[in-house]
Amino acid sequence: MNFIDPITDVVQTTQLNYIGEIKWSSPVSNRLLAEAAMFTLPINYTLGFEPDAAPDAIATWDQIRSAISGVAPRMDTNDARMFTYAGSVSYVTGSHSIKAGAQVRTGASQEQFTIRGDILQITNNGVPNSVRLVNTPSGHKESGVNTGIYAQDSWRVGRWTFNPGVRYERYVMSIPAQGAPAGTWVPARDFTAQNGIINWNTISPRFGFAWDVFGDGETAVKGGVSRYDRLEGITIIQPLNQRNISYQLCPWSDMNNDLRAQLSEIARDRCSMSLQPTLGNVDPNLRRPHQWEYTVMVQRQIGRNTSVSAGYYGRKYTDLYTTVNAAVPSSAYIPVTITNPLTNAPLVVYNQDPATRGQVRNVVATIPDLRQIYNGVEFQVNTRLTNATIFGGLTIGRDHGDQDSNDLNNPNFRINNDGAIGFDSTYQVRGGFTYRLPYELQFSGSIREATGLPQTRVYPVTTSIVPGLTQVTQNVQVTPRGEFRYPWQNLVDLRFTKMFKSGRTRFEPTVDVFNIFNNNAVTNAVTTIGSSLGRPSAVVMGRLLRVGGHITF
Question: How many CB atoms lie within 10 A of CB 122?
């Protein structure tokens, strides 16, 4: 596995979770409809140690080989539940279809962490380098209430249809009172409630249109401009929970060569970071991230059975935020020039001022210069023949911008931070067909091809590269994201079906062949520069034959 943070290497066990839903609707009149619903979703699972690991095993992470040994680094018990309540009324007239309603979503989530020995050992190619001293047992619990009120209309005027709408949202997030028992490095802890840490109030207008160009229903122009709040969970305030997991990073000299860190081998006076996770701060000017979406599309019917379309899609995300350490501003970092291991060119990295070692005041703050932009065009064609349907499409797009993560007060995280983001795949081709044969036989298939997703190249800068490095280890991106990519993917699937009937009973056996050409494109690999760079950790699912059936009676 490619462990940028080894704490993610765990064994997952998911408990049985039941989903509940109730819906009610009433046609008050032939023009008025009232609806209400309630939905509940539990999420319970455990991330734990390997069952065959020795009771005294300690986790060791080799950050060059990107490998974990000994035991999984943590035991994590998770439980959460969400409730959603919704109600709406719809009113239809000759030219208007008006709908208004409200939604309320409430929920709470809790995680509890345990680590063997409250320590994680770190090596470089098997050579001891440092240890993480962790404040376990620890965890966090958060809650939230998201309320939305909306109104929308669909208004027909001649050959035009207009779809105006507006949505108001209020989102409040809190941290309930909680505590944790003593661990190896920390005493027992109790924390008071932090209510209303986040209190967002936003208004999102939306407008769409459709124009029947010639009035014959064969040529249409559609488009719209809409604002959407970014979906946010209560995870935004998890870093502010003082009960959360945190650690000190300390140099480790294995003097007896037993690959087991003793207290006398740990340089506690040179530790960076802190066993206290945060002071629980949110910038009072924090804004909710949102996107503006712009679309325009032309659709044309050709003959009776074929349609083609071409469209433009644009999205721009702004008001992005991250957690910064306000106690260590950017001015507290000193530039140091090293050699880029990929290009051999000079590379400027930054050493934290030793006077600020261990100082932490994490603040969730909007970073004004961050932005993420997508621009793309899409072409589609669909046609129906006597015994077949065929469709195809091509998307050309670019998803580019800044990563809204890490402490951006640390200038090391701004190195090559601007680049390809998310699921940036320049070209995506898709197509498919269905062909009906005699004797109730059907043959269908699909093809999906896409440019590989962007990769990073991460260089762990350590004290052996920058003597006296305050951070002990500092990961740096040494190339822009997207300069390296995963391979092109080419996936072809086929399906065969046959219908059997007997009275009111229908039986339909199916045979599916997925990835018929057995494409083995790598989808995840080690991106840390070292002996394991490029080692695959995930590939496209290989050729798969599935035999199934469907019966109706």
Answer: 24
